[in-house]
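Researcher: We're teaching a course module on how sequence relates to structure. For the next exercise, students receive a sequence and then see the predicted structure as tokens, so they can try to spot secondary structure elements on their own. Here is the exercise chain.
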Amino acid sequence: MKSLSNKVALVTGASMGIGEAIALLYASEGAKVIVADINEEAGMKVVAKIMSKGGEAFFIKADTSIPADQERLVNETVKKYGGLHIACNNAGIGGPMGLTGQYPIDGWNKVIGVNLSGVFYGMHYQLPAMLASGGGSIVNISSILGAVGTKNSPAYVAAKHGVVGLTKATALEYADQNIRINAVGPGYIKTPLLTNALDEATLKYIATLHPMGRLGESSEVAELVYWLSSPKSSFVTGSYYAIDGGYLAQ
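Model: And here is the predicted structure for the students to work with:
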């Protein structure tokens, strides 16, 4: 039997990049997967990929920065598959760049809304459903910038630091209720979000910031998220795992 058989898994921001890789891996390990995203066309393509390989998946359109969307997302998941055992709060945006003293207020609010409040809203509705399902695992996607800073991204850095703190606090609250909660901090990963925004020279420079000399792959992040979501990590909660080619070791 596959390790996630009879489990229901919810992935936000699952239409491409890291989220897509996580959804595909969950499904390959036997989970019924809810693919959630604001991009319906791309999300449906991920569902089609899963089903073409014999997996089971369903798309739900949701904006994770809206509490009502998060509530509906969980309710529809439970209605569709009868419970919720795994959630990966992956949806995130980069936001504008700029010095803190000049940073646009609407940009700050949007980044915090998706990257931090969205994780809180997600867990707020996921946790009662998981308790009703007998327990489970939540993985929140932070960043290397959840552990260190960088210039010109105050909202992103603040949000990703906040995700780590929120993960630890919530993990303590539910540690004795059979729910494990962990955070993952990817380095720079070769995703459409990155490659579509930067030219080749910039991508090559960013690769050099990692001691391994390359960008990470979405599939590599997915493997770590899968481990944290599975019974293989049964004694792990409240932890932050960097997956960064050595970036934070410098």
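Model: If you want an answer key for the exercise: The chain has a mean pLDDT of 97. The first strand starts at residue 8 and ends at 12.
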